[in-house]
UniProtKB/TrEMBL annotation:
InterPro entries referenced in this protein's UniProt entry, alphabetically: Aminopeptidase_N-like_N, Aminopeptidase_N-like_N_sf, PepN_Ig-like_sf, Peptidase_M1, Peptidase_M1_dom, Peptidase_M1_pepN, Peptidase_M1_pepN_C, Peptidase_M1_pepN_C_sf
Keyword set includes Disulfide bond: no
Domain Peptidase M1 membrane alanine aminopeptidase: 222-433
Natural source organism: Amylibacter marinus
Protein name (database record): Aminopeptidase N
């Protein structure tokens, strides 16, 4: 069993391994409960260490060692010292120059409920090795700086036997590219394959295969199309070609995360592959496109160039997220993409960085690395790349990336390596910029303006955030894209990127006839909180006139947030002005429907709570829920005579297509329907529900009906229609958990927890119900604390089987200190109860420990 306090791993302690690995031969004799894995590993000395002699120390967990030998000599039981984390062979038995290690272990895929290592999902074998799952398959140097060539032989009954690289014959695979163990994959089962082809720009023909369960073959078209577009895009935008003759994707139903970039054999959560118009929403299609691209892009940013150690995770994840965001923008709309990316960043990363789980983009210590696949590493990591690109310019960015691929191909690298290519190409010193990787917390940028005699002075300051994380931190480099507007909406000065690289800086602009209205942080040019006090007239002016779409949206959102906060604090406010401006935008045919839909969507309840926090108020989840509903109603009334027409006009005729134009029209149509439902007693939503021919509209209508408390018939019908489609059933659980009115939500989720289809061991199903409930603030944060108790019960239950998914979901408590004392007490009681669980995993233990610290 694990020691009572699991050790903390630190970046400063990094040391190269004593031995490198050249080659690995793996043989799998598959059996559901007793798979035998035989490995033959060629080790050689690490000449850089020079501090031997060394024991052979290998990582291994939950392995039954059957046999081991070194250079053909069998090791006796007392020559191999096994413990909970691996094994050691004393130095005097280990030829220090190099040797061949052979061993056989037995593992139990069916008993592997953690879904890490080799496990079974619906009768099929699959693997998840990132970050440290390979050590649950065999003894190894399970660390990303050890890169080796793998040959794999799989013996089993299944008609499909897959691993990385080139197929030699049935069940036999060779990967020519050296890789760390976390990129190893194996899949075996009764799978169907959908096949296509891609020719790289240098003329290599690549076979593309998507493996799915029987019956799902017709759900792969979009994923396949997205894959081909990704391959082309990486050639055109980064000069990167695919490097094998075969690229495979497998869809798996039981998966802890989204997907995994194993070399040549990506494994996906099936929700990110399978789609038909009847079963998937526009949002699902968009996510499939983004994640297919993300995993494909990892082939260069992650696989060919990997991470030296797990502290460098953002080296591959931040960069790859940045790349997939730009890809999605190119495929759809950059301005909409930017708004959506910022919404995600603010919804997930800002709260993380303002609470007890805050950590730098490159963390410096961890207990369980799986807990660091976070919004900070991924999404803030991507923002850092975006700022770097802005600072050096597009051309230099491309030249630095080219140099990165040339210089580091085949290596396991660090953030220092990444920064250095930018310094070498641009000639800039990026020491200060690097603080973005090292300092946690969200900088707050505040603003002072002064205008006299034609001179405009703009003073920007960067400060600690409200949570105090940034006290005593050094000033970072913050690029602030800035525009200037005259009262007629024209721009007297060109847009410029102001670089705030000190605690305070004043920028002086001469020759203006009047004080400009300043448009700051255009395009959200840095992941900061902009504290710019504007009166509502100024905001309204930018809302109407800003030429930067992001800031136009931002101005509208700022007005909405102010109104919502006042309403949640019980003040009587009139939203008529705002609603009127919204109306103009909603009906403006020159604007992208998708953008108009985003405008019509009010800030989430969580976003309102955050804004109240910035204003120094304690959020009341129920009051926020009511305020949001009331403002929606005000807007609906103002647009009353336009809504039926807008709803009808945005109807997309002809067969369903998931493309951005059609999806944008549907988004606006459904936003209009949401408002209309507050006026017509859900009549139009009922019609749409019963008449819909695609999941986007069916699901949106269902959501509207449930939130209005009128969903009973539709809920039953939806279940009957979709009870055999697991991914659609996930939606059925999630939408009830997330949109049932707060008074009724707990009873509903309790009952659903007893439902015969609530297969809680499946991570997607668990997240749908428990996660859906816990992310509906007014339901989860009900004043009597029973929402907390319900979620804690389930987390304790799941932790015994699946630590990764449990630990991740504990993040729903991450914002607990923003609420009132009574709620804080109720939450901490539940957190302590979780913490006292005798068998608590180190994953969950680390998160709960931080939440309570
Ligand atoms: N590298 C994967 C991705 O971002 C994430 C896999 C992480 N899985 C885990 N169990 N930590 O595409
Ligand atoms: Zn990734």
């Amino acid at each position: 069993m694990r020691p009572s306090t699991p050790p903390t791993i630190r970046l400063v302690d990094y040391q190269q391994p004593a031995f490198w690995i050249e080659k690995v031969n793996l043989k799998f004799a598959l059996h559901p409960t007793a798979t035998k894995v035989t490995s033959e590993i060629t080790f050689h000395a690490n000449a850089d260490r020079g501090d031997g002699p060394h024991d052979l120390r290998l990582d291994g967990r939950d392995l039954k060692l059957i046999h081991a030998s070194i250079d053909g000599r069998d090791l006796a039981d007392d020559e191999v010292l096994c413990d909970a984390e691996g094994l050691s062979v004393p130095a005097d038995l280990v030829p220090q120059e190099g040797f061949t290690w052979r061993c056989t272990v037995e593992i139990n895929p069916e008993g592997n409920t953690a879904l890490e290592g080799l496990y079974m999902s619906n009768g099929m074998y699959c693997t998840q090795c990132e970050a440290q799952g390979f050590r649950k398959i065999t003894y190894y140097l399970d660390r990303p700086d050890v890169m080796a060539r793998f040959n794999v032989k799989i013996e089993g009954e299944a008609p499909v036997l897959l691993s990385n690289g080139n197929k030699i014959n049935h069940g036999s695979w060779q990967d020519p590219w050296p890789k760390p163990a976390y990129l190893f994959a194996l899949v075996a089962g009764e799978l169907e394959v959908v096949e296509d082809q891609f020719t790289t720009r240098s003329g290599r023909d690549v076979v593309l295969q998507i493996f799915v369960r029987k019956g799902d073959e017709d759900k792969c078209d979009y994923a396949m199309d997205a894959l081909k577009r990704s391959m082309r895009w990486d050639e055109e935008h980064y000069g990167r070609e695919y490097d094998l003759d075969l690229f495979m994707i497998v869809a798996v139903d039981d998966f802890n995360m989204g997907a995994m970039e194993n070399k040549g054999l990506n494994i996906f959560n099936s929700r990110l592959v399978l789609a038909t118009p009847e079963t998937a929403t526009d949002a699902n299609y968009k996510a499939i496109e983004a994640v297919i691209a993300h995993e494909y892009f990892h082939n260069w940013t992650g696989n060919r160039i990997t991470c030296r150690d797990w502290f460098q995770l953002c080296l591959k994840e931040g960069l790859t997220v940045f790349r997939d965001q730009k890809f999605s923008g190119d495929m759809r709309s950059h301005s909409v993409q930017r708004i959506e990316d910022v919404l995600t960043l603010r919804a997930r990363q800002f709260p993380e960085d303002a609470g007890p789980l805050s950590h730098p983009v490159r963390p410096e210590e961890y207990i369980e690395i799986n807990n660091f696949y976070t919004a900070t590493v991924y999404e803030k990591g991507a923002e850092v790349i975006g700022m770097l690109k802005r600072l050096v310019g597009d051309e230099t960015y491309r030249a630095a990336c080219d140099l990165y691929f040339e210089r580091h191909d085949g290596q396991a690298c660090t953030i220092e390596d990444w920064i250095r290519v930018f310094e070498d190409v641009s000639g800039q010193d990026l020491t200060q910029f690097k603080l973005w990787y090292q300092q946690n917390g969200t900088p707050v940028v505040s603003v002072d303006e002064d205008f006299s005699q034609g001179t405009y002075r703009l003073t920007l300051r960067q400060d600690a955030d409200a949570s105090g994380h940034r006290i005593d931190k050094a000033a970072q480099v913050i690029p602030v894209m800035t525009g200037f507007l005259d009262t007629d909406g024209s721009e007297p000065l060109p847009e410029q990127c102001l670089i705030l690289d000190a605690a305070e800086k004043t920028f002086v602009f001469e020759g203006l006839t009047a004080k400009p209205v300043v448009s700051l942080l255009r395009g959200f040019s840095a992941p900061v909180i902009l504290d710019h006090t504007m009166d509502s007239d100024q905001r309204m002016f930018l809302f109407k006139h800003d030429s930067d779409t992001f800031n136009k949206w931002e101005a509208g959102r700022g007005i909405a947030l102010d109104l919502l906060c006042d309403m949640a604090r019980g003040q009587l406010v009139k939203g008529a002005n705002f609603a009127d401006a919204l109306r103009t935008i909603a009906l403006d045919g020159a604007l992208d429907p998708n953008f108009r839909a985003l405008m019509l969507t009010l800030p989430s309840e969580d976003a309102i709570a955050v804004h109240m926090g910035h204003l120094g108020a304690v959020p009341d989840p129920e009051a926020i829920h009511r305020a949001r509903h009331d403002l929606k109603k005000t807007i609906a009334k103002q647009l009353a005579s336009d809504l039926p027409e807008l709803f009808a006009a945005m109807r997309v005729r002809g067969p369903y297509s998931p493309d951005a134009d059609a999806a944008g029209r549907r988004a606006l149509r459904l936003a209009a329907l949401g408002l209309l439902s507050l006026l017509d007693d859900c009549a139009a939503a009922q019609d749409l529900y019963w008449g819909a021919d695609n999941m986007t509209e069916q699901f949106a209508a269902l959501s509207i009906l449930i939130s209005a408390g009128k969903g009973a018939d539709a809920i039953d019908a939806f279940y009957k229609q979709w009870k055999d489609e697991g991914l659609v059933l996930d939606k059925w659980f999630a939408i009830q958990a997330g949109t049932t009115p707060p008074e009724a939500a707990l009873d509903v989720v309790r009952a659903l927890g007893e439902h015969g289809d609530f297969n809680w061991k499946n991570p997607n199903r668990f997240r749908s119900l428990i996660g859906g409930f816990a992310t509906a603030p007014a339901s989860f944060h009900r004043a009597d604390g029973r929402g907390y108790e319900f979620v804690a019960d389930w987390l304790i239950k799941l932790d015994a089987l699946n630590p990764q998914t449990t630990a991740r979901m504990c993040g729903v408590f991450g914002t607990w200190k923003r609420y009132d004392k009574k709620r804080q007490t109720l939450i901490s009681t539940q957190l302590r109860r979780i913490q006292k669980t005798p068998t608590l995993s180190k994953d969950t233990g680390e998160i709960i420990g931080k939440l309570l610290a």
